[in-house]
Design a protein that fits this description.
The chain has 101 residues and is mainly α. 81% of the residues lie in helices and 0% in strands. Helix 2 crosses helix 3 and helix 3 (49-73) packs antiparallel against helix 4. The chain is elongated and about 45 Å long.
Length: 101
């Protein structure tokens, strides 16, 4: 877990040299929303597509919330706007799943 956090910190530092990491949260939320929707679709057959997309959006929301909790316990601040950008990205990812698949 420590290596993953170090990798994330290095990646975020490189991608966020322009001053704001909100776009990074949006991007990761979007990717989580799409991939979680796909995982739910592959592992649970017989449900409606909207169910998979909803689960993907919820998964992105939970992951982004956990990320902010980890930041808080690592000595940083719990940034609600980072969490909201990640959640919005997850919702966009779930909608993209519905459109593409």
């Amino acid at each position: 877990m420590k290596k993953f956090i170090e990798f994330y910190d290095k990646l975020a530092e490189k991608l966020c040299n322009f001053g704001s990491d909100k776009y990074l949260h949006l991007l990761f939320g979007l990717l989580i929303g799409i991939f979680a929707s796909l995982i739910f679709a592959v592992t649970t057959k017989g449900c409606m597509e909207i169910s998979y997309a909803t689960c993907g959006a919820i998964a992105a929301t939970i992951v982004m919330l956990l990320k902010e909790i980890v930041d808080f316990f690592r000595g940083g601040n719990f940034d609600v706007t980072d969490w909201l950008f990640g959640t919005i990205g997850g919702i966009i990812g779930a909608l993209l799943y519905l459109i593409i698949f």
